[in-house]
Amino acid sequence: MDLLAHLEAYVAVAEEHSFSRAADVLYVAQPVLSRRIKTLEQHLGGELFDRSGRQVTNTDLGALLLPHAKDVLSRVDHLRQVARTAVTAAPHTVGVPPDSEPAALARVIRAATEHGVPIRVRELAADDRESGLADGSLAFALLRVPPETASHRIPLGLGSAVPLTGPSGRRPVHLDSLRPPRGGRGPVPPVLVTAEDQTGFAADRLIKAAARAGLSDGRIQRAASTATAVAETLAGHAVLLCAEAFARRHGLAWTPLADATLHRGYELAAGRAGDRAAQALDWMGVLLADAIGTAERAAAADGGGTGPDPRSGLAARG
């Protein structure tokens, strides 16, 4: 027996003094309401209403139990309200790439508070963001997708201690240009790749592109950590596959990759968040695009377009 539904029927009949009016209040058919009252009376061991007169009245048992029934329903309503408040106030966790820009993430957090959708940000690997969205530990996540179908695209390039293609470093570089010159002497610096680009289809594409370019096995190496990769690159011992915004933050020269299929692509996805949280996808997507350094933001930094925050582009240009 659904005790709450039966108690609601009991209280409604007692307040309306009518089975038909109580059924209208509860939006149920009168026969359904009558069965609930009969089942509750059997459960409690006595009749709750006197049906002999023109108006339904409480029996002595019905009058005795009515305040207790109302108290139960009131407590249940309070419990539901507390639960709704807790769910609404609880921060929604957003999974983002590990190399996101902290200042831009702060803007996302502030905007979420203003929209009444408090969030907390977690930097996670691409696989962990996808699994977190599936198991419900994340409300939102930036998922890696092929750049040609992505809403947010980030050009990748090679970070280095000195520009690879002259003083400007803006001419795109092809992977085959990284082959050691004939008769060259000395060690050839490896291309370090962080975990963000060593997963799923992204790793497969990079391996195939390196093979087509004739790069030797072991030339593409997974970085042990981001900090170590940046240090090795600044020391001139390696080049680092990274986004332009990341290279700028760490004082690296940056040369874009000519192969656009190796660039990063992202989609902002919502998990089992509530309707109000799901509505945050539009404005949150714009701000997170700035945090990960999309193509639009890169264009703004070069004066070729407008991004979510023009001041960040000016700051990047010095």
Number of domains: 3
Largest sheet: 5 strands, mixed
CATH topology name of the largest domain: D-Maltodextrin-Binding Protein, domain 2
Regions with little confidence, pLDDT below 50 for 5+ residues: 297-318
Ends apart, CA distance between termini: 71 Å
Q: State the CATH architecture of the largest domain.
A: 3-Layer(aba) Sandwich
Please give the order of strands in the largest beta sheet: 4-3-5-12-6
Count of helical stretches: 13
In sequence order, what are the helices and strands, one letter per element? HHHEEHEHEHEEEEHEHEHEEHHHH
What shape does the CA trace take?
A: rod-shaped
Class by helix and strand content? alpha/beta
Q: Could you state the CATH homologous superfamily of the largest domain?
A: Periplasmic binding protein-like II
CATH first level of the largest domain: which class? Alpha Beta
Proportion of beta-strand residues:
15-25%
Annotation, overall tally of beta strands: 12
Which range best describes the helical content: under 10%, 10-25%, 25-40%, 40-55%, 55-70% or over 70%?
A: 40-55%
Average pLDDT level: 85
